[in-house]
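ZP: hey, is the 4'-deoxy-4'-aminopyridoxal-5'-phosphate complex queued? I don't see it on the tracker
AM: it wasn't, my bad. submitting now with these inputs:
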Amino acid sequence: MTTNHDLFARAQKLLPGGVNSPVRAFRSVGGEPFFTERADGPYLWDVEGKRYTDYVGSWGPMIVGHNHPAVREAVERAIRNGLSFGTPCAAEVTMAETIVSLIPSVDMVRMVNSGTEATMSAIRLARGATGRSKIVKFEGCYHGHGDSFLVKAGSGALTFGVPTSPGVPKASADLTLTLPYNDIDAAKLLFAQEGKELAGLIIEPVAGNMNCIPPKDGYLQALRELCTEHGVLLIFDEVMTGFRVALGGAQAYYGITPDLTCFGKIIGGGMPVGAYGGRQDLMEQIAPSGPIYQAGTLSGNPVAMAAGLAMLQLIQAPGFYDDLTARTVRLTDGILAEAKKAGVPFSVNRVGAMFGLFFTDETVESYTQATTGDVAAFNRFFHGMLERGVYLAPSAFEAGFVSSAHDDAVIAATIATAGEVFASLQAN
Ligand code: PMP
């Protein structure tokens, strides 16, 4: 039998750290990753046949569970007609119509192949449209691995303690100004000083790459007003929150209209897809209708569009988000109650079907609170859960996700497992 360990040994000789994306390597939680052979509904199975209840969901896309028949069948139908055309295809038009109908701030859209591409392209558009060079991002927010964003970044960059990466030229990093998330006074001060030089402000409207931190009441609205006042484009990075916290994303959930929005994950149904879109006057500045260049050999790929469209169909079912939110509440309330029972200092954050678990009594509202939490306790909890067949994101700085395949029985089993693990943590 192929074992996880054998595969990881082979992988480490050939792939940096044995993986194709850093957080997968389990470096921060310790131990070795498992290798998934197949996935279905709320579950993953590794190459040794062990089953895991999965709260990572391919880092977000699997909102209807893994291997959903409607998505799989849409892909199967699409591939019979060929894998890539390099010409326009009808599914791209349907995809654009679907996005525009679901996200009122988006008049026009450009499909790309990843979240990283979406954010890099949106920033180029912001710079091209405003004629300004500087951008603002938030400490602990992750927007993919473009040079402009690997400055005080979240996710893997934060997990590995290198929030600002070597290889990012100083000239590029100098154009990225950073702010503390959820601190409106700091934003006002920066805009007062630099407002006229800023092309755009990019934010995860719910921070999901330093665990899960919702915006304080009125925070996003205040940022919207600051951007409008200073002619700065407000860019929502909804790669994670889009079609996750609500059908219309965080912008619908909080009632804010950004100038540009980036998408990824769910929009591709599990295929490599991203997109960016926004106001028509801005989007028309993208080539070939305008001078700002951005292109992609595989962009709008017919198979990826088929998967994404099937997914976007499923999530429009009446009551889908109410149901998903109720499941997430049940899960997080249940885990919290088990922690309290065991006397473990613990708190949870949750927006829609996105959640964060914190080993502290405090409500976590800032990067500082998130990064000074008890990472060692999280790591012990992670391994206790993993051993018992529950897979949480392998880092204290990642959000968790619930899918519509996580039914009551699955959630109850996870809560019971969490209770066992909390008790075992206290016993040691
Ligand atoms: N933005 C956000 C908010 C993300 O969470 C991620 C990925 N986790 C990205 C951008 C980058 O997306 P990708 O990994 O598809 O490049």
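AM: back. The radius of gyration is 21 Å.
ZP: great, adding it to the tracker
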